[in-house]
Amino acid sequence: MKDFISMLDADRLFIENIISLSAFLKEKVKKGENYRPLDGFTAALIFEKPSTRTRVSFEVGVYQLGGHGVYMDTKSSQLGRGEPIKDTARVLSRYVDLIVIRTYGQKRVEELARFSTVPVINALTDEEHPCQVLADLFTIWEYKRRLHGLKVAFLGDGNNMCNSWLIGAAYMGMKFYAATPEGYEPLPLYVKKAKEIAEKTGAEIVITRDPVEAVKDADVVYTDVWASMGQEEEAEERKKIFMPYQVNSGLVKHAKPDFLFMHCLPAHRGEEVTEEVLEGERSVVWDQAENRLHTQKALILKLVRKVKP
């Protein structure tokens, strides 16, 4: 693997390796031990979308590994003046060891990776958010010590998170139930690919309209904002459509007593999730956010081949 631009670039073994390496790196941080194998390493961090967790976790992660991150946005680079992404890829490849990009279209990331001679990481597009799913799977493993056979209920918009989760859950043999309103399902390509993978791994992939069906006996209840970046004009209309999918105390009663509540953040309290659930004892959202740091460090090390696959 040269790049990580889609969950489809992964497989079960790769995800297991990332989880193992993430646990190792997290333990180093907890013990206050320096582990800096990337002395002299440089990474270009291209952010064409606003970010808190993704930017900070990548910048800090590169630093903790001994490297240096160069932040770029459209205002401070030629990308904002129309330079083709393929030209940026070829130039940056002469300067840096890795490129991380957070942008809009998936095709833009694919073109960047095609013309880059150094590894490229997809830090979010409108279609996928694979780095978040790696962190999510690691977080679940920390609490449950297994992934195979666990049931994940995803409530709300079948967005980039849902697309990436479909593939990740399929690889790991999980039961993934996505409950979405009509017209807001995950992209058919990801549903099709997930079901094909599930035939080999024993996973269960279900797309439903019924939030109770999805949450019933779930080990993990997951949600995301109803209106993603770029959909702000639809926010009020979406609130009406998605309200039946709100994660609240009534809905989570259908999950297993020891369920985990997850959200990739930022959260809109009172919309996709209530305050009592987000701040409740079953919520692991802060561990989930922290684990972005550890899994992305693991991913960087894997892609630059500083550890054995």
Secondary-structure topology with pairs:
Blueprint: H1 12-30, E1 42-47, H2 53-64, E2 68-73, H3 85-92, E3 98-102, H4 106-115, E4 120-124, H5 130-144, E5 151-155, H6 160-171, E6 175-179, H7 188-201, E7 204-208, H8 211-215, E8 220-223, H9 235-242, H10 249-252, E9 260-263, H11 275-278, H12 285-303
Parallel strand pairs: 1-2, 1-3, 3-4, 5-6, 5-8, 6-7, 8-9
Helix pairs in contact: 1-5, 1-12, 2-12, 3-4, 5-6, 5-12, 6-7
Cα(first) to Cα(last) distance is 10 Å
- What overall geometry do the principal axes of the alpha carbons give? globular
| Annotated CATH topology of the largest domain | Rossmann fold
* Poorly predicted sequence stretches spanning 5 or more consecutive residues: none
Helices and strands, in order, run as HEHEHEHEHEHEHEHEHHEHH
Reading off the top of the CATH hierarchy, the class of the largest domain is best stated as Alpha Beta
Name the helicity range: 40-55%
Number of helices: 12
Classification by helices and strands: alpha/beta
User: CATH superfamily of the largest domain, please?
Assistant: Aspartate/ornithine carbamoyltransferase
Oligomeric state, counting identical vs distinct chains: single chain
* Biggest sheet architecture: 5 strands, parallel
Query: How large, in whole angstroms, is the Cα Rg?
Result: 19 Å
